[in-house]
Each structure stands twice: as C-alpha cells, then as structure tokens.
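Q: I'm writing up a methods section and want to include an example of the input and output format. Could you take the sequence below and give the corresponding predicted structure tokens, formatted cleanly so I can copy it straight into the document?
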Amino acid sequence: MPNDKANTNLTPSDSANVENSPVVVSNDKQSSTGNKSKNSSASSQMQLLGLAKQFVLDGSLLAPEKQMPLEDRARKRERVINLRRQQNLEAIIQKTVGYCSNNEVTDRADQDWFNRFTVLAQDISNKTMQELWAKILAKEIAQPGSFSLKTLKAFRTMSISEAKLLAKACGLAVKDQHQKNVRIISGAYQKPGLLNFFDKNREKRINNATYGLSYAELMVLADNDLMFLQETESTALSKSSAINFNYNGIALALSAKKNDVVLSFYKFTPIGTELSALIGDKPDTEYVGELKKQLSYHFAISES
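A: Here is the clean output for your methods example:
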C-alpha cells in the first residue's frame, strides 16, 4: 500500500522547508499568557514569518552578518521548490496506484496529457486535494479523454472549500441515462392556460438551500465555471411522457400527469460535469422525499 508521504531524498535543512504542517512559533509574550490554549492560532505576523522561513523567503529578515548572499538564497529557494514539487507529485502517484486496476487493459495513455497534468499538479501539497488529483489521473488512464486540459486548469485554481462545495452540489444532482448531463432540479410547472391559470399549485419549487446549497453558493460554482447560474428548462411534456434520471445511484422515473408540464433545473457546465465524476454516490433519502413531495403534483414518480 502506498504511504501518505512521498519518499524523497532531502537534506535535513531542505526537508524542514518542505513540511506541509503549519509552522508554530512561540515568543515571550505568548508564553506569558498562561490562560490561553496551547493550540490557539499564532498572530498574523508570526504566521507570515513561519511561511517566509518555510518557503526560503526570510533571508533579508536575518541580521546582516547571518545573511547568505542573495544569489545563494535564490538557488536554495529554487532547490526547495523543486524538492517540494517532486514530493507532491510522488505523493499523488502513490495515491493514484490505489485507484488503478492491475489487470484491466486500457488504451495507451496520452503522454502529452500526462506531462501537462504533472505541471498543473506539482504545487498541490494539501492531501485532500492530492486525493482528487489522484482520482483524476487514475480515471484518465483507465478511460483516456475523461478530463480535458481545460478542466485540469480550472480545477487547479479551485480551493478546498470550493471543491467541497462542488461535492455538496453533486449530492443534490441528477444525471441522465448516459451520465453526460448533470443537473440540480429546481422546480416544475405547468404552462398557464384557461383551466389552470388560478391554480396555486401550478408552479412548484425545490428549496435546495434547505439541503445546504444556497443561491450564493450557486454563484460561487458559476464563478468557477462549474455550473450555469441561469435556470434552464426541459421541453414541455405531454401527459404520460417519461423522464428518467439517476440520483446518486437511485433510478428515478418521472411520468407527467398532465400536458405542458416543464421541469426547471440548474445545469452543470462541461467542466463541472467532468469533475462530478470524482464524487462518489451518496444519496440523501430525505432529499428524495422532498423531490417527490414537490414534483408529485405534476409527475408520478417511481424509484428503483
């Protein structure tokens, strides 16, 4: 089994500079406050000094007689950066091995794609994000063409909180039978006519914010090119017309009870659709119940 840390040959001084754990610094003022927890965060200045040391940018902060020549400091920083990148990539490769099959034959991997992957992934030191990059690599090797370079570039700029937000959105999303369209249902309505114009139930909405996905969070997903912010709609369905979805492993069949029924939803972008493949199926039965409750006026819903 691969280890969590990459096995690189670092000198003691360089190794200290590429540790991923946060730097903890204490001073006389902090030690005098005995009532504060030992785990309390350091001041912003102390955190800055710790980061500067970790990334070999503290040379000018030392006393003049202790400073290395600027050129030597630049070479040391370049060496530490390269060691850190090597460590990050080896950690990702180790994690990827666990997601790959050792007996399934696949098409030849694209070396150019792999080279671009290493360039984009080399600065990823957070272990949670490394796991996701490992999943991307494993899936691309198993099924070449699963992830475009455009998707990799977008994923490279995502923070952990944004990745978690994508996972939250996937927890509410449905896919079509071919798994190519990923959408979050936002409601349903029947087109207005003489017989239903005053029907209070003509339009039903799904309150996705109740299940942890607010409109503000949808805007964040849209800013990251993961989801279209503007709602889209299905074509108007005639009575008994059926739509089939897969909700995190649960097959949902919707059959229209009336004519001119329309489903509205938020649609994932191509980038969001590709990245949604990284998220495992975690159905929320309570959410399924809410879908049935709000959509049952317009649809007969069955699951399997």
